[in-house]
UniProtKB/TrEMBL annotation, chain A:
Keywords: Magnesium, Prenyltransferase, Repeat, Transferase. GO terms for molecular function: CAAX-protein geranylgeranyltransferase activity; protein farnesyltransferase activity. It comes from Aspergillus oryzae (strain 3.042). Its cofactor is Mg(2+). Transmembrane segments: none annotated. Belongs to the protein prenyltransferase subunit alpha family. The lineage of its organism: Eukaryota, Fungi, Dikarya, Ascomycota, Pezizomycotina. The keyword Transmembrane does not apply. InterPro entries: Prenyl_trans_a (IPR002088). This is Protein farnesyltransferase/geranylgeranyltransferase type-1 subunit alpha. Its EC number is 2.5.1.58, 2.5.1.59. It comes from the Eukaryota.
From TrEMBL, chain B:
InterPro entries: PGGT1B-like, Prenyltrans, Terpenoid_cyclase/PrenylTrfase. It comes from Aspergillus oryzae (strain 3.042) (Yellow koji mold). The lineage of its organism: Eukaryota, Fungi, Dikarya, Ascomycota, Pezizomycotina. Belongs to the protein prenyltransferase subunit beta family. It comes from the Eukaryota. The keyword Ion transport does not apply. Residues 6-399 form the Prenyltransferase alpha-alpha toroid domain. GO terms for molecular function: CAAX-protein geranylgeranyltransferase activity; metal ion binding. GO terms for cellular component: CAAX-protein geranylgeranyltransferase complex. Residues 261-272 have a biased composition (Acidic residues). Keywords: Metal-binding, Prenyltransferase, Repeat, Transferase, Zinc. The keyword Transferase applies. This is Protein geranylgeranyltransferase Type I, beta subunit. It holds the Pfam family Prenyltrans.
Length: 349, 419
């Protein structure tokens, strides 16, 4: 091999370790890839420095090269971190490099995990670096729903205790004003408002380890905050009534505060209006299928007297507004009104 | 319209090409996932019923040898041979750079099972010992063991699932020959997974992360593996019908089925809300009359028609487009929850066969995209769940053919005859 490492005096002392895919020991390798010569050479040198446990500038540079070709390589990142700390490198430079990589490889786990590993160094980052959130917003310009970036931002909030920093909710508002369907932003909003602070147990919803119905319910409820969030969700529903995100958000808020779905019954009814002629309902005017679902659930919770209304709503969904989920709406009907089911609806495959 | 056709012969050709020729250099960025790619290839051919027809027993033995070549001396499997610098050079100081990897260990074991190997050369006790060292204090699992025994890698559900899967395969029904080998903390793992359920019923990468079908699959997969092995375990809410966690997850999963395929420019702004609205602090109190007026001004939703609903794939998160692999993640989760019949199988089939099945065989990620191994395999599995003729039936947790599962259950530590 006469690649760039073989001909570089910096690397003269290193004996590269070629890829051992087992061909010499009678294996038939699976998922063989047509590697470029550059990749084969760089990884041969990487194996050599790793075997020697070498911590050096040249090793660090080599990791740049390998990562550029294979950013999902799971040990090269750990090895890079080890080198950075062993050589006491300036992490500002590392972040500049990392930002470039992040904008280039949008969907990569390792990059964001690496960022988290570096940022968790209290010695280097006792407080949130000033440009960090700006960079995340730059990432969101490329893809406002990038899962890795949101997961990292979530971690950042918890690490630096940013729940009540005005910037967090401002950024969420901005992103939702740009795209009210950005479910990632809705989720972040929920976490900011209702996520556990400090050392309280962690969970995907408040009080997550408790058995139902306590699961999902806050121990202490700030009723004003709950009211404000519900109004916020209403305003966003009106902007796009078929957008599921704020309806789901409102469900979560109500559950967290221990309030019933019926609190939004009147609001939901505005989107589902019966057309009455001669005292009989002749048609229903629907402005949001999610409002129909909301009413179905609300009637379902009200007990037997409202069962017929719940079934009417589920039927509306299954026949007109959401027929893809016909089997699911039938399942819901079967759960609240087994009798109706067996009499009127034939079983389908 | 004519019914969609499953191009079995072309899929066989696609998977055979992946098995017997080099994958294009584009796959270099997936080099560290070679065991996963190998799994897709071998399991894909197996699902098509052709693994044993199109390969010789010598070839299959060669593949088995390669998988064992990926086994790390201290137990578990690496994800690719690229980190192997030779056992003669391996020391306690450098072994962290060539570690066993949690997902790869699971997939290596499944490949061995599909190929009919009896796992007799698997370092079973070492692997299970390593596994218990991979569990964090909060119950979750890491990806690899780093320097000074530190658990490295994100704390997400992928590692929980494949950790639980590895335990399932190697521990077996009776845990034979494992006296004195520390087990993982099952209760803690269950608690961690349950804590990842979000306010909308779905499950995210970690607590308070956005619900995501891939992570939901991992959560339900892990719980299913744990549940299958446990004898007197307290019931797990996420697997128990009629509980809040179970039913809200079912709702979230069926809601993932969507006609928004991302293949039509108009689709993205069909409604009112995609535009940028005025930026400014929203008043906390919206006046009631104006709210009514606003609703009055809204258009009526037109009922769906057969035309608008011909194809329905699945997305992985709320308000995202359909993608082939989510046809798998969602239906596999529902399958493990025994709720697969709640989806629209006909429209999912049409989506896969008319929109992402590729002319050269295999499946692409979205409409009109070139095929790749991951989407090709998951496209097949989603169809197999629905009973597509020409495909073997699949176990949704192990994600391999029932034949491979029967083989696993025939291994010595799965026999319950003792005692």
């Amino acid at each position: 091999m006469s690649g760039k490492y073989a001909s570089d005096p910096t690397w003269a002392s290193v004996e590269p370790i070629p890829l051992n895919d087992g061909s010499e020991t009678g294996t038939l390798p699976l998922a063989t890839i047509a590697y470029s010569d550059e990749y084969l050479e760089a990884t041969s040198y990487l194996r050599a420095v790793m075997a020697a446990n070498e911590m050096s500038d040249r090793a660090l540079k080599l990791t740049d090269d390998v990562i550029a070709m294979n950013p999902a390589h799971y040990t090269v990142w750990h090895y890079r971190v080890k080198n950075l700390f062993a050589l006491k490198k300036d992490l500002t430079e590392e972040f500049e490099w990392l930002n470039k990589m992040s904008l280039k490889y949008l969907k990569n786990y390792q990059i964001w995990h690496h960022r988290q590993v570096l940022m968790s160094s209290r010695e280097n980052f006792p407080t949130l670096p000033p440009n960090e959130l700006d960079f995340l917003m730059k990432m969101f310009k490329q893809d406002a729903k990038n899962y890795h970036v949101w997961t990292y931002r979530h971690w950042l909030v918890r690490h630096f205790r940013l729940w009540d920093e005005p910037r967090e909710i401002q950024d969420v508002d901005l992103l939702l004003s740009q795209d009210v369907r950005n479910n990632s932003a809705w989720n972040h909003r929920f976490m900011l408002r209702f996520g556990p602070r400090s050392d309280e147990p962690d969970g995907g919803m408040p009080n997550s380890t408790a058995p139902p119905p306590e699961k999902g319910r806050l121990a202490v409820v700030d009723e004003d905050l709950v009211d404000a969030e519900l109004e916020y969700a209403k305003a966003k529903v009106i902007k796009a009534p078929e957008n599921r995100s704020p309806w789901g958000f409102a469900r979560g808020v109500l559950r967290a505060s221990g309030r019933p779905l019926s609190e939004w019954k009147d609001f939901a009814k505005k989107f589902v209006q019966d057309k009455v002629e001669d005292g009989k309902v002749v048609d229903v005017e629907v402005k949001s299928s999610h409002a129909v679902e909301w009413l179905a659930d609300t009637y379902g919770e009200e007990g037997e007297l409202a069962t017929a209304e719940a079934v009417r709503m589920f039927t509306l969904l299954k026949e007109k507004y959401d027929p893809i989920r016909k089997n699911y709406w039938d399942y819901r009907i079967r759960m609240i009104a087994p009798a109706t089911w067996s009499q009127e609806i034939p079983t389908s495959a | 319209m004519t019914e969609a056709v499953f191009q079995k012969e072309r899929h066989i050709k696609y998977f055979l090409r992946c098995l017997k020729t080099f994958l294009p250099s584009l796959y270099t960025s997936n080099d560290s996932n070679r065991v996963l790619l190998a799994y897709f290839t071998v399991a894909g051919l197996d699902l098509l019923g052709e693994l044993y027809n199109k390969t010789t027993s010598e070839e299959r033995q060669g593949y088995v040898e390669w998988i064992y070549h990926c086994q790390v001396p201290s137990g578990g499997f690496r994800g690719f041979t690229g980190t192997d610098f030779g056992s003669e050079r391996r020391t306690p100081e450098n072994e962290a750079w060539d570690p066993a990897n949690i997902p790869s260990t699971f997939f290596a074991l499944v490949i061995l099972l599909i190929l009919g190997d009896d796992l007799s050369r698997v370092k079973r006790t070492e692997c299970l010992q390593w596994l218990s060292k991979m569990q964090r204090e909060n119950g979750s699992f890491g990806e690899v063991l780093g320097t000074e025994g530190k658990i490295e890698g994100g704390g997400d559900l992928r590692f929980c699932c494949f950790g639980a899967g590895t335990r399932y395969i190697l521990r077996g029904k009776c845990g034979d020959g494992l006296e004195g080998i520390m087990d993982i903390d099952v209760d803690k793992l269950v608690a961690f997974i349950e804590a990842c359920q979000a306010y909308d019923g779905g499950i995210g990468e970690g607590p308070f992360c956005e619900s995501h079908s891939g992570h939901t699959y991992c959560a339900i997969g892990a719980l299913t593996f744990l549940d299958r092995l446990s004898k007197n375990h307290k019931p797990i809410a996420l697997l128990s019908p009629k509980t809040g966690p179970f039913e809200s997850l079912v709702r979230w999963l069926v809601t993932r089925q969507t006609c928004e395929l991302g293949d039509d420019e108009e689709e993205s702004d069909e409604e009112d809300g995609h535009g940028v609205d005025e930026i400014g602090p929203l008043s906390a109190t919206v006046e009631e009359p104006s709210l009514d007026t606003k609703v009055d001004q809204l258009p009526v939703v037109p009922p769906e028609t057969e035309d608008s609903l011909r194809w329905a794939g699945f997305n992985g998160r709320c308000n995202k487009y359909a993608d082939t692999c989510y046809s798998f993640w969602n239906t596999a989760s529902l399958n493990m929850m025994n709720r697969l019949t709640l989806v629209d199988a006909t429209r999912n089939r049409r989506y896969l066969l008319e929109k992402t099945q590729h002319i050269v065989g295999g499946f692409g990620k979205g409409v009109g995209e070139p095929p790749d191994l991951l989407h090709s395999y998951f496209g097949l599995v989603s169809l197999a769940f629905q009973g597509e003729p020409g495909l073997e039936s699949v176990d949704p947790a192990l994600c391999a053919s029932q034949r491979a599962v029967r083989h696993l259950h025939s291994l010595p530590w799965w026999q319950e005859t003792k005692r």
